[in-house]
């Protein structure tokens, strides 16, 4: 049976999701919703560098629903609960990279709206991605199968934001280049939203593995630039933030059980920060202890451009939810999480990729 799929948003992750849907047997792209008015009415193939696909983009929810999708891949940078609730209420399953990683620990009000909509429409909602997502939830859960007795689970992310293409996200959302006082949950709605996603990830690991967490505590610090740092069309001025460290710690009776430590910078990070390896390091302390270091690149075997390597993270983020579509569509109405879904694997596998225009 072929599942009909619509794409919501065509940013860096959304474009990769479109390619993923096109390459996956059993999935059919039937609609694409865009944000910018300049993209309306464009053939979806044009947005991803492919020949015409016969699917025109729209900004209208009614047009998207008229295409009768079984599932929507919802990938805006900022999620809107009402939008997703409308889809669920209409009977459409939703996979998203934007939010809802562990509904049991999200805002009670938002959870109620989504849950009621899902049951009303007989639909399912699943949130995942890279981190938060696969590296912080599915990977630790899989590795825990090697361990008899767990003491701690940790994830350290080290990322250089200087090559990330969207300076709007880097500067406006993540607040790089802002004064230190503005890089804080209390000063930024987006940073507060982002921090909550990571807290949900910590809670999920704790809940799934019986940590009996009492709390998840957020700590953060920043570093500032000592000289101007150009970043594409923008500049980080001296004295403004060029490095952020966020740590989310799940504690049980005062003891740290689950820790996510993210070190993000453009240029040099503060000297007293951990000298972490670029990428993601997952570590389980127990009997026995297990560690895995993870990176995403365009290729480990062939020379590729920096831009290709940067896009690889967006592709991995998108594919985690695209590949989950059949399992989500088969799941019971309500919420599906990294804990409740079966192993998510590549749908396309070794099959040939869709060809780009002119190839």
From TrEMBL:
UniProt keyword annotations, A-Z: NADP, Oxidoreductase
Q: Which residues form the 2,4-diaminopentanoate dehydrogenase C-terminal domain?
A: 142-349
- Is NADP one of the keywords UniProt gives this record? yes
Residue span, Dihydrodipicolinate reductase N-terminal domain:
9-97
Q: Highest taxon of the source?
A: Bacteria
Q: Name one Pfam family in it.
A: DAP_DH_C
Q: What is this protein called?
A: Dihydrodipicolinate reductase
Lineage here is: Bacteria, Bacillati, Actinomycetota, Actinomycetes, Propionibacteriales
């Amino acid at each position: 049976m072929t599942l009909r799929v619509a794409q919501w948003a065509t940013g860096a992750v959304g474009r990769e999701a479109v390619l993923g849907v096109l390459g996956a047997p059993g999935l059919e792209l039937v609609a694409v919703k865009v944000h910018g008015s300049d993209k309306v009415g464009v053939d979806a193939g044009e947005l991803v560098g492919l020949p015409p696909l016969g699917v025109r983009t729209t900004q209208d929810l009614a047009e998207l629903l008229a295409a009768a999708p079984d599932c929507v891949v919802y990938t805006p940078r900022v999620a809107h609960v009402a939008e997703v609730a409308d889809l669920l209420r209409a009977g459409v399953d939703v996979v998203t990279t934007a939010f809802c990683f562990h509904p049991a620990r999200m805002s009670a009000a938002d959870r109620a709206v989504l849950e009621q909509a899902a049951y009303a429409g007989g639909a399912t909602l699943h949130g995942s991605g890279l981190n938060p997502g696969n590296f912080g939830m599915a990977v630790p859960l899989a590795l825990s199968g090697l361990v008899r007795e767990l003491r701690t689970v940790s994830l350290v992310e080290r990322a250089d934001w200087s090559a990330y293409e969207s300076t709007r996200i880097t500067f406006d959302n993540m607040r790089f280049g802002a004064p230190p006082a503005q890089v804080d949950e209390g000063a930024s709605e987006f940073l507060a939203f982002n921090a909550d996603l990571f807290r949900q990830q910590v809670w999920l690991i704790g809940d799934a593995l019986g940590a009996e967490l009492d709390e998840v505590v957020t700590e953060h610090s920043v570093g500032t630039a000592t000289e101007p740092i150009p970043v594409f069309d923008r500049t980080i001025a001296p004295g403004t933030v060029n490095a952020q460290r966020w740590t989310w710690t799940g504690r049980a009776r005062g003891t740290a059980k689950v820790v996510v430590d993210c070190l993000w910078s453009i240029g040099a990070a503060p000297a007293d920060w951990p000298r972490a390896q670029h990428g993601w390091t997952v570590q389980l302390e127990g009997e026995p202890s297990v560690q895995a270091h993870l990176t995403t690149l365009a290729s480990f075997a062939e020379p590729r451009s920096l831009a290709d390597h940067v896009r690889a993270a967006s592709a991995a983020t998108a594919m985690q939810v695209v590949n989950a579509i059949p399992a989500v569509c088969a799941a019971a109405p309500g919420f599906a999480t990294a804990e409740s879904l079966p192993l998510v694997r590549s749908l396309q596998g070794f099959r040939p990729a869709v060809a780009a225009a002119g190839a």
